[in-house]
Design brief:
It is a single chain. This protein is α+β, with helices and mostly antiparallel strands. It has a single domain, classed as 3-Layer(aba) Sandwich (Glutaredoxin), CATH 3.40.30. It has helices at about 10-20, 40-50, 60-70, 75-85, and strands at about 1-5, 25-30, 95, 100. The chain has a four-stranded mixed beta sheet, with helices on both faces. It starts with a strand and ends in an 11-residue tail after the last strand.
Length: about 110
């Protein structure tokens, strides 16, 4: 079973969820904005996707543009920043066991099945 980290207000996230539904792929939805993701959770997502914590940041978010853009942080610091501001997390992230993808486009989910 796949796990999708989903934000229902995000078109890309909705497209990822719709892809899972249309392909009849068993999945569970993690409404990560309603959860309390820790820095360790973010690091685990980074490890499973092979994407650095910095590259999991949504650079179009206002908070990124006003407070973070152009600054250098360690991976650990980025994880803490994302955990404290979960809207910064790229989405949707889809996991299968110890592997994961940033499902942009949704067809990237095929790498997990």
């Amino acid at each position: 079973m796949l796990t999708i980290y989903h934000n229902p207000r995000c078109a890309k996230s909705r497209a990822g969820l719709q892809y899972l539904i249309e392909k009849n792929i068993p999945h569970q939805v993690m409404a990560y904005l309603k959860m309390s993701l820790t820095a360790n959770d973010i690091q685990n997502l980074a490890n499973k996707t092979g994407i650095s914590p910095k590259d999991l940041v949504r650079t179009q978010e206002k908070f990124y543009k006003t407070d973070l853009k152009g600054k250098n942080f360690s991976d650990e610091q980025w994880c803490r920043i994302i955990a404290g501001n979960p809207a910064l997390l790229q989405r949707p992230i889809v996991l299968s066991g110890e592997k994961g993808v940033l499902a942009q486009p949704p067809e990237k989910i095929n790498e997990l099945i």
